[in-house]
Every structure is written in structure tokens, then in C-alpha cells.
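In this section we walk through a basic example: taking a raw amino acid sequence and producing a predicted 3D structure, encoded as C-alpha cells. The instruction is simple. Fold the sequence below.
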Amino acid sequence: MIPPVVTGRPVASKVLLVGQAPGDREGPAGKPFAWTAGKTLFKWFASIGIDEEQFRSRVYMAAVCRCFPGKHPKGGDRVPSKEEIAACRPWLEREISLLRPQLIIPVGKLAITQFLDVRKLTDVIGLTHRLDLHARPVDLVPLPHPSGASTWHRTEPGVSLLQQALKNINSHPAWQDITEGA
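The resulting C-alpha cell sequence is shown next.
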């Protein structure tokens, strides 16, 4: 993993977004989702009433891994190893324990698999999943990764499932609380 550690703002929120790992531009920018994937992600959230600045100031943003994993020899970002994921896991566990979120939004398959057993994104995107985390019920609404390299969210059934997931987020009471007055 390549430093620096990338974290979101220290926001006390009932909504927790969990990304996969920062890209190579997030470290220098000092914030998660600071580049191309972020532009797409924040367009999605704007469609349900909250712009990027409002999102960053109202939603706690975490990640499976906190440093850039490096480039894959064949192109794109390298997927963090099981050992790297395990090394970062205590941070995410502690954040969940402290924040006690009512809604978790995992973004991308790596983030989703930290909470759900996933074979195909079509099995989990567009649904609200109820989990028990730290002896508390939590709703999980997964989103696909907004990467420019992925076509999943730009082709069917991904387009429709993404829209359903955004509707599920928008109607969730924790989301309604953070978007009041947005």
C-alpha cells in the first residue's frame, strides 16, 4: 500500500459510505472520491438531493483499505490483498462501533463483500439488506463502483438497479435526516 492514509471528514453521521480503496489521485487531493469515480458518485447523490459539498459534510466516508494499493501490472488499480484488507479492518470496525450508523452504503464489490456474500452485483444492487452489526440493526444499500472503467452502471440491468438503489437510499429515514434543508 502507498501512503498517505486517505480519510473523509470527521462527521458524526447516521449514514456511512464505505469505498474500496483510494486511487492514485486521492492521496494528493487528501480526500476520498476526489477524481473521476467521485464525479460520477456525486452525480448519483445529486440526483437524490445532495451535492458533493453537502455529502462530504454530512456523511461519514470510510474505506475497506485506507491507502492506495498501487497499479496492477496489466493496468488499472491493484485489488488489495486479503492481508491488506485484514490489516485495515479494525479501523472500519471501530468506526461502525463508534458511529452506530443506521444506513451503510458500500460502493463497489470489494466494499459490498465486507458485509454480504456476493457472487454477482445483480443479486445485491437495488435491494436494502438488513444486518446486525455490533448487536444493532443496520440497513445496507450497496452501489456499484462508479469507475469510468466499469460499464456495469451504464448498461442494463445495472442502470435500473442503480436507480432502484438510489431510490432506496433516498427514502431511508437516516438519509432523510441528513438531507433536510439541502
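Looking at the output, two observations stand out. The chain has seven helices and five strands. Residues 155 and 161 are 10 Å apart (CA to CA). In the next section we compare this with other chains.
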